[in-house]
Specification:
This protein has 153 residues and is an all-alpha fold. It has 6 helices and no strands. 31% of the residues are buried.
Length: 153
């Protein structure tokens, strides 16, 4: 099978995919941290909690309010959305936008699953909401937002 004229090579599409995923993961992580920092200023953790110490979080997780728990969920969701959007934008013309977005979502999901394992005292509703909504659905939404311009790419 011959490649169409002006069509990017497989190597070029692979490089674009990798670059998009890396850019998306980095910018998504930055968005995640930005939301975490901003939300911890607005809704600080319970007194005595060191947010840099998992043992401190586990020991005090029962003292967190629903709003304090929703802050990391929003950080995870917004970080994934931003990362997936960036990855999909970089790959829009290559036709691999959805793949790039979902790879970023899967990467963030693996981080979320790890956090669930290291903070076992977190409420089940939080774990279910976080793992079920903040990652793959937000990655898909990030890709869909790139499609709103009407471009068929």
């Amino acid at each position: 099978m011959t490649q169409a004229k002006n069509s990017p090579s497989i190597a070029a599409r692979l490089i674009r995919l990798v670059l998009g995923v890396v850019a998306g993961a980095v910018l998504g992580a930055m968005a995640n941290m930005g939301v975490l920092i901003a939300s911890s200023g607005l809704f600080p953790p319970p007194p005595g909690v060191d947010i840099n110490d998992v043992a401190s979080i586990n020991a005090n997780i029962a003292n967190y309010s629903v709003v304090q728990l929703l802050c990391p969920f929003l950080a995870h969701a917004i970080g994934t959305l931003v990362g997936a959007f960036v990855a999909a934008m970089v790959n829009g013309r290559s036709g691999h936008g959805v793949m790039a977005a979902l790879i970023v979502g899967a990467m963030f999901l693996s981080g979320g699953a790890y956090m669930v394992s290291v903070i076992p005292a977190a409420p089940l509703w939080f774990d279910a909401l976080d793992l079920g909504v903040a990652y793959l659905p937000m990655a898909y939404l990030g890709w869909k937002l790139t499609r709103r311009g009407g471009s068929p790419s």
